[in-house]
């Protein structure tokens, strides 16, 4: 994976991510995350995971309860 171009890695990450999580990332990124760099997408993912650790999963939130 280290030999792959950053744009291809970003494409693979976005294709393998569920639509629900893409929507959440778009909200946190304030727009279309496909326009962000791979590093910025990683930072958004890290922020989401840290928020989940602090707050826990909300069982009433259908987007977070599926994945």
SSE order and pairing:
Elements: H1 6-16, H2 19-29, H3 38-55, H4 62-66
Describe the structure.
The chain is mainly α and 67 residues long. It has one domain. Helix content is 67%, strand content 0%. The chain contains 4 helices and no strands. It is globular. It starts with 5 loop residues before the first helix and ends with a helix. The mean pLDDT is 77.
Globular, elongated, flat, extended or rod-shaped: what is the shape? globular
Tell me the distance between the termini.
Answer: 25 Å
Total individual domains: 1
Order of helices and strands: HHHH
Characterize the main sheet.
none
In helices, the fraction of residues equals 55-70%
- Count of helical regions: 4
Number of strands: 0
Using the CA coordinates, give the radius of gyration.
13 Å
Low-confidence stretches: none
Tell me, rounded to a whole number, the average pLDDT.
77
Bin the strand percentage.
under 5%
Q: What would you call the quaternary organization? A: single chain
Helix vs. strand class: mainly alpha
A few lines on this structure:
With 67 residues, this protein is mainly α.
Looking at this protein, list some descriptive labels.
67 residues; mainly alpha; 4 helices; 67% helix; 0% strand; globular
């Amino acid at each position: 994976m280290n030999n792959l171009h950053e744009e291809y890695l970003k494409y693979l990450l976005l294709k393998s991510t569920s639509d629900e999580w893409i929507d959440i990332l778009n909200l946190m990124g304030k727009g279309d995350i496909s326009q962000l760099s791979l590093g910025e997408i990683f930072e958004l993912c890290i922020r989401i995971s840290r928020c989940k650790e602090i707050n826990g999963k909300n069982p009433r939130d259908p987007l977070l309860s599926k994945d």
